[in-house]
Structure formats: C-alpha cells, structure tokens
Amino acid sequence: MSTIEQPAAVALAALHPPRRYLFGPGPTMVHPRVYEALSKPIVGHLDPYFIEVMHDVQELLKAPYGVSQGATLVISGTGSAGMEAAVANFIDAGAKFAVFANGYFSDRLTEMAKRNGAIVVRFEKSWGETYSDDEARDFIQREKPNVVGFVHAETSTGALQPGRAICEAAHEAGALVIGDCVTSLGGLPVEFDETGIDVAYSCTQKGVSCPPGLSPMAMSQRAMEFLRARKTAPRSWYLDLKLIHDYSTVSHRYHHTAPISMFYALREALMVMAEEGLENRWERHRRCSKAFAKGIEALGLRMHVPERHRIPTLNTVCVPAGVEEGKVRKRLLDGPGIEIAGGFGPLAGKVFRIGVMGPLATEDNVQFFLSEFKKALSAEGYSV
Amino acid sequence: MSTIEQPAAVALAALHPPRRYLFGPGPTMVHPRVYEALSKPIVGHLDPYFIEVMHDVQELLKAPYGVSQGATLVISGTGSAGMEAAVANFIDAGAKFAVFANGYFSDRLTEMAKRNGAIVVRFEKSWGETYSDDEARDFIQREKPNVVGFVHAETSTGALQPGRAICEAAHEAGALVIGDCVTSLGGLPVEFDETGIDVAYSCTQKGVSCPPGLSPMAMSQRAMEFLRARKTAPRSWYLDLKLIHDYSTVSHRYHHTAPISMFYALREALMVMAEEGLENRWERHRRCSKAFAKGIEALGLRMHVPERHRIPTLNTVCVPAGVEEGKVRKRLLDGPGIEIAGGFGPLAGKVFRIGVMGPLATEDNVQFFLSEFKKALSAEGYSV
Lengths: 384, 384
Known about the structure:
The first copy, chain A, is of the alpha/beta class and 384 residues long.
C-alpha cells in the first residue's frame, strides 16, 4: 500500500477562477451556452448520441472552413496536435517540404517536419511580412517540393497570407498544401475549397470562441487520396488521420476515447456561429478591427502590419519607445483583469498582441479596451 | 467569398444528451462538482491562475499515482496520447522494446513502438492471463531490452498485472519500464514508486471519474534523467515531455494552449478523490467488485478472470452460450440507458466488459445493475 497521503490536497482552495477579459490571441471569451454545453452529462464515446454529435460537428465545420468537396474532422488535442497530424500524415521522412517562413508558427511547422525526417526548405521573411503571388510561385517552381506549408493567419505577427497563388503553384508542381488556419477559422473566411488548400488545421479557442482542447481539420479530396494511397503507416498512431476518419465518419470503430464534453462545447460554439451567420460574424470582426486600429492610431500608436495584410481578429500594436510591454500587460491583468499578450521571438518586447474576437468583438468592447489600454500605457510613462 | 451557407446547421436540434448509466469501461459517471468546474469561466493558458491550477493538478496526482520522488504532468490529449508520449520520448528508433502482450493495449503499445522504429519483442499470453514473477524475470533477462512495457490494468480483458518483479528485472537489465495505468489510476493503488515504474500514463475518464480529454502521467527520477540525457529530440513535438514539463512546471514558457476547462475538471475530480480519501475509495471499489462478482455468479454466469487477478473496477463477464452479447447491450442502452461494452479482438462476442467505478461504485448501484442485467439477459433467452 502506498504510504503517500494527501492532507495538503484536501486543504486546497475551491476552484474559483478570476474573471478575465480575454483580449489576448486566444483563448477568447466563451458564450454562456458553450459553458452550459460543457456541463451536460456525458455519454460514451461509442454511444449513438455521441456519434451524432461528432457528425453534427463535422457538418457544422464545413461552412466556416468553406469545405464542400473534402472532409472535416476533429483531432482530440489542441491546435498544435492538428499541426502535428498534418505533418505526420502528409510529410513523410525524405519528403521535401517548402515553408513560407514569416513567423513563429512556420517555425513550429519546420521543427515538426524536421523531426518527422523531412527535408525542409524555407522562404524567409521578417515577422509580419507576407508573400506576393509572384514570390510564392517563384519559390515553389524553384524548389519543386512534395508539400508546401503556409500560415494563413500568423498569430505571432498579426499578418494574413492569402493562399490562392501558393495553392495554384503547388498543385502545378504536384505538391500538397498544408494551411495553418489556427487564427482564421471562425473569425474570417478560410475559403478552403476556393483557395485550394489540401490540409488545414485550426483550434477551438480563437475564432470559434470555445475553450481550447480540440483541433478541427479539413482535408481536400486530393489529401484523402494521398492518405488512401499511403503504403506505410504514419509515425503517429494517435494522430493517424485514416484511423481517426474511420472512427469519426465511416465505421465508428473505436480508436481513442474522444473528449465528449469538449465535443459538446464545440458543437454549441459552432451552432452559435451558424445562428449569427458567417457573413455577419466576419463583418462584425472586420468592423471591430477597423475601429480598433483607428483607436490605436488616435492614441499615437502604430500597428505592426500594414492595413491590407492585417488579420481582422488579431492585432499587433508596436510598443512605444520607453514603455516596457510586460509592465503594461501586468497592469491590465492586475487591474481590470484584461489579458493581452506580448510578442515573442524577433518581436519580443516590440509588439502587443491583442485579439478582438468572438463575444468581445463589439464596438463597445473595443472602446472599453482602448480606454483601459490608454490608462495602463499612461501609468507606464507613455503620454498620448 | 465562400458560397457555402449553412441553413442546415441552424436547424440542428439543441444539445440534449440522453441520461446514461455509464457501466462501461469508461467514461464513467462524473460528479456534479466536476461538471460545475467544467463550466467555470476560462482564463488564459499563461495566466498566473492557470499556472496554479496546473500545479495543483500535478500535486493532487502524486497520491493516487503513489509518486513522491518523480514528476507528474498532464498531456493535452486522451490516454492514448499519454501512451504515445511514453513511446515517443522513451523508445527511440532502434531501441529494443519488450512487451508483456496479453491484451489489446499491449498491442497498441507494440504498434506505436513499431511506428517509432523500435525493435519489439513480445511475451504472448492469452487475453485475460497474467505473468508470474518468474516468467517476467526470465523474459527480461533473456531479451535484455532497453525498455519494458506492461499494462497494469488491461481494459480489454479485466486482468491486473503486478509490476514489481517486472520493474526489478528491468532495472537489473538497465531498462526503463513503461506502465499503462489507464484503468488503474484513481480506482486502485498504482504504487508507482514502490513498484518501480519509470513512466506511467493514464486517462481522466475511468478511476478518476472526470470526462475524457487529458492524460495524467508520472515519471521516475530515472526517466527524467533519460530525458535530460537525450541527444536528439523525440519525433513528436506535441508530445515532447521535456517541453511539456518545462511549460507546466519549470519556466511556464508557452508550448501549446492547454485545455483550460479540462484542467479545471481534472482538478475538481482529484479534489473529490482526495476528500473521500484514497484508502476509502479503493476499499469502496474492492467491496463493489466482490459484490458484483458474487451477483454475477448467483446469476449462474462466470467471470473471465480468476479472482486474484481481477481489476476491481473493470469486470469481464463471460457471455453465456446462446446469447448474443450485442443484443443484450442494445437492450440495456435502449431500455434503462445503461452502457456496458463488449469484448473485442479474441474476446469479441465472448465477454461483457462492465465497469463499476467512481460514483457508480456503490452496493446499491451494483444491485441496480445486476437486476437490469438479469432482465436483459432473460429477454435474450438466458434462463437463470
């Protein structure tokens, strides 16, 4: 018998999370209906009701992804698990992987692909820059890769990379395209089919405004064909998309025990989204993005990314000279309970990353944020 | 702009899961306090409050695991993600992995290790059998593996495998030991330190009685040393235990966005467990296991595993001749809403798998189950 007892455990305080305004790059605020869904009684992972829930989620994901031909499915892990699933299933050892490298998440893609044994070639740009159609085509035509990776909405920089030219050039070269849609799904159009992406992954805690824990994915017919034609199993069993697709869509044969409550929550978040209407939702985010940038400029501050390349849901604001960004963030968190994030990598100390997504994307909330932001900046020595 | 609209989506019924009695091998019933925790407002994954929650969870896991020297941490995926983390971090390509193969989950371990490039040697036994100390030692001394794997409580068979002799022999041979504790943690003593396990993984939805979605792990000092000494990164980035340990315990540097709500739920489930007291909880499960087996035998049925090798929380009952197990299960689900599972692999059609865990592990619930089980069996032609 174990001799370890746990008096300290029982003495722990009851769970009582502080109330935060989540203006960071995610997680975002969550609709009360989604919290309610989380607390519904669970059923088994092979229960006919849960199979229906998985099916509903897959259907509900099609519109925000812009998928009609391909398949949607959900990985039982966070957005990074989706990224690893994309890498593990589509970039085999020895494959040539061409990455548009302009931020942290393209670095993560690079790292995962290298660990999987791929040969990675990178088109480097400064964090926050994007690629023109010509640049994208030249790179792909020159490198002739097996797989191309780009980040649609780069959370670390606030820059949006259109994918159409990338996908066209990749398909001409016979390559598949992996698109990181972690920060775009639900907050702005992904246009999966129209863009020509083959494999996309996202998360639940940004544009979808659900708590984190799952990774919704989309696969084109071409990607499905690649999976069917695979001669060897991918290195990851947990993230084996053929097995997961079979469990969730085809045979419903046991693969793993899906996170039931998280699926309830995701279904509800997607219902909330569908009821609002995607066009309305995207327009709301665009409107707030403009109001936000206008307010930032009125404070004498500068946005890091030029207007035409901005992600409407995630803003990077340059830290003004003489201000320590960490202190501003701490002040916002300790005072009004506002969470925002700082930059990292080459942007460490140089930008604030401020999300205006989901329930917080209203004009009132933007004004509330700007007013608190101004106070915190002033208290840290910045004068408007 | 995407042309795909979602009228069907909005027309979906509201989420309204049926009420189930989860007598399967997991997920189990969930305490109301855990559901309440799930619906608490989220904070960010780098918020000081969340760091505290992660810390609390790690501390609360030590007693049920029986860890005092090593580390506990939580993987953001289900039990199978924990299994894959163990394989990816401790069984490198070319390593020799010796598996005690007496059920489905040792097959899954085998599959994962092979995908990771390991040389796997297996000690095969029929599903439901266990290994004596001498058999365990002989196998390890003969094979001289780098890593040994065994399943403490085999969900597919109902058999419990003691680990002490395995661990002693493995350590003498200089091997690390991976112990699958998916069905044991929280329902029976794991005795991680005393047994000498180096790497253990579990899930949240069995003995811990929380919804599925996370994998609590434990690592010995020896395992931590192995990680520190690694010269190459493991193939999986998402499941890289050095990075996860750093995020959750040391620097709190961003690795991935942890599933906040699930951590709230796990903390609460572990609090419920700590308040009951582990000895009380284990004794309650043992008592119910005996009452269950007695009731089963009184129905003229046979348990698949001899009494001394049974998992107290998960029972395998032989399907009586002439009865179709799938029909009995359907009848239980459609009628009183009771979920149980069937066997699979070599035990397909031959056993029922019936969990008596967590909130359902009371004498009253055992009697309720037995009475409904008897009705369903009778309706399918079995006469007591």
